[in-house]
Amino acid sequence: MVYIKQIELSHFKSFGGTTSLPLLPEFTVVTGPNGSGKSNILDALLFALGLSSSKGMRADRLPDLVNSTYASRSRSTVETLVTVTFALDDWQPEAEETEEGEGTGLQPGMAEWTVSRKLRVTPSGTYTSTYAMNGEACTLQQLHEQLSRLRIYPEGYNVVLQGDVTNIISMSPRDRRQIIDELAGVAQFDRKIEQAKGK
Ligand code: ATP
Ligand code: MG
User: Fold this and answer.
1) What is the pLDDT of residues 149-176, one digit of tens each?
2) 39 known ligand binder
3) Residues 4, 23: contact at Cβ < 8 Å?
4) What is the ipTM metric for this complex?
5) 3-state class of 77 per DSSP?
């Protein structure tokens, strides 16, 4: 079974220093008082998986994800880093997959695989976002390609946020079907059919 084994956050939202959160196979519950940072852990996960919209991580702008105490104390460039470690255990590529994983991508037999994202914010407020797989720099597209092999989609429903359930209940049957198709992995074939028809 593939599962998230650890999330390590540095200067991310309410996490001032570096915090390592071990997660268990199957089921982990995070409890704590209101405002103590539980949802920020999920935001950190989405951040590392390459979610582009800061709103999806409940921040107006990406630089707002950097711990504010740390950012206000620094006069130079600040950065936040989140690393997610997946335990791959007996993961195997899908039978129909033809692409070989790249060097830092998923390979059968790998026990662990890490993805990380770093956001650097300069004193003038400009920022850059960089990604790495197994510690080696990669593009966002390369990261998404590898994540999709695990059926992980930052914009998908691997993470169900507050309000999502209400949205799903109140959406039209057609829109709800679209979500099920995405989760079942059927939608990617529909997209390929549409692409082929367009050619
Ligand atoms: P609830 O039980 O109400 O859902 P929670 O444990 O999920 O609470 P979060 O939403 O994860 O809480 O955390 C909210 C806290 O994170 C707020 O106190 C907010 O000030 C703090 N926070 C958010 N962004 C930053 C930041 N950039 N720097 C410092 N603190 C931040
Ligand atoms: Mg919360």
Assistant:
1) 898 888 778 888 878 889 999 999 999 9
2) yes
3) yes
4) 0.98
5) coil
Ion ligand 2: residues, CB < 5 A: 39
Helix, strand and coil in the chain, % to nearest 5: 35, 25, 45
Q: Which ligand is nearest to the CA of 58?
A: 1
Number of helices (H) and strands (E), helices first, in the chain? 6, 6
Q: Where are the domains of the chain?
A: 3-155, 163-199
Q: How far is CA 31 from CA 39, 41, 84, 164, 174, in A?
A: 10, 12, 20, 20, 36
For the record, the structure tokens of 66 come out as: 């950097």
CATH 3.40.50.10260 for the 3-155 domain, yes or no: no
The vertex-108 CA angle with 105 and 28, nearest 5°, equals 80
36 known ligand binder = yes
Using one digit for the tens of pLDDT, what is the confidence trace for 36-55? Answer: 999 999 999 999 999 988 99
184 pLDDT tier (thresholds 50, 70, 90): confident
CA pair distance 14, 102, nearest whole angstrom: 35
Question: Closest Cα to residue 143, out of 174, 177, 115, 164?
Answer: 115
Alpha carbon distance 71, 74 (integer Å):
5
The answer, yes or no, to whether any atom of ligand 1 lies below 6 A from the CB of 35, is: yes
Alpha carbon distance 3, 86 (integer Å): 6
